[in-house]
Batch of 2 targets.
Target 1
Amino acid sequence: MGPGFDIFGMALEHPKDTVTIIPTSYKDVEIQVSGLAASGIPTDPERNTAGVVARKILENFSLETGLVIKLEKGILHSVGLGSSAASAAAVAFGLNHLFNLQLNSTQLIRLAAKGEVASAGVEHADNVSAAILGDFIIIKSYNPLEALRLEPPRNLSVCIAIPRVPVPCKKTKVARSILPKTVPMEKLVHNVGHAAALAASLAIGDVDLIGKSMSDVVVEPARAFLITGYEKVRERALEAGACGVAISGAGPAMMAIVNSNKTRASQVAEAMKEGFESVGVSASAFCTKPGKGVSLLEVKR
């Protein structure tokens, strides 16, 4: 969300994944993938975030069992919506319940973040924290790991536009590799100020200020060239009434924050879609709200 690279994350009400975990007698982890967003997701446990987390937990807690993990994917992967984090978080959460491991949220986040190495190359905790805790999260510290949760205001809506473009293999890792290695002081000051304002505006429930604080002069400019139509989508969204616009995660999806007391989110979503189409890029768009994160749907013994 703008200036909060690896620090800010927000769970979404939609889209969703459903994950089913079945213990087996054979000592291995099997990944099965289905759903509308299943295409291209690896089933090799070493290359799938759910598989990495599952094997890590089995090893750490000396659990003498195998697992079949069924991922019904509703979240498109490699577009910047945290698909890999959703799988990792769900498995950590599910195994904690299944085997009564009594892990707290920080321990779950730390384990789920290990799965992100499979997609991003690093254990970043922003996405998995949002998936586990829900609402809006701030990673205060990585060592020791500390995540804070804030409840977004009710009149905050989120619009997502996803261009239909090819993305590179290990897209998140590629998007991280192009980031600047050093940051000028004036850019550091800008991002710290805007990140602080964004967190404060969430705490006081000011959606307009949230949008105005979504200005990043470090990471987003380095990635914007990867997204054909970036400027047009941003321009159209703001003209339609969005409070703020940013690349969603590592992209290529873009997100806009909308004050639903003032503007219809659907008109912003349509404007973003038209922004991509104006430069010859087919796209889809939808509206959603902040979500409550992972939840237990059913337990069968």
Target 2
Amino acid sequence: MEQPDHILIVDDDLEIRELLAAYLEKQGMRASTAANGRQMRALLEQHQFDLVILDLMLPGEDGLALCRDLRAGKWRTLPILMLTARDEETDRVVGLEMGADDYLTKPFAVRELFARIRSVLRRARMLPPNFEVKEPGQFLVFGDWRLDTVGRHLLDTQGTMVALSGAEYRLLRVFLDHPQRVLSRDQLLNLTQGRDADLFDRSIDLLVSRLRQRLGDAPREPRYIKTLRSEGYIFSSAVEVADGPA
């Protein structure tokens, strides 16, 4: 018999923890709760979880620090949904850069949260288990760069590694999978995060800017990611597939 998804809720607000746990259990999921990073780590050592709901504003270690630690350790592939009371683009992008798979701004409807959880879980299960691959991985080659799809980092012509955040990797992978094609902001957001854009959501623009910095792409005369006014972005470089290092 298939086990229900087990969700870990990390929030210092007892009322929110109890409300979310009760709702998720009504939807057929299992739910455990933690008020801080110490309790979160203890539960992670004791149980197998399918997703973590992580509040940004926590006492002591905040959600960003905990998210970064999760991504650096043995739980690096565990999906994370970030909750934040801040309605600012920079906070959203920082959370995504630290490795969160999606975010939701408080206050929110529990139905919206449940939809986001299902979307994140679905995307996570569609991704290849890259961290478990033992054989040489595939490389996507473009311009002066090679993307290691196993290690999820860039290599320049000298073989120097440039690390990418989870959000940067997903965005670059979408561009490399759809070269020479105009992609709107809505399409990019849907392909990278599995959701539609809010009216004033500029997180994709900020991520594109950060990805350009990684690639050394000049915003005024970009070589790789070009902006098409009122349309979106296009990855203008040719992309080739290689089976191993050059």
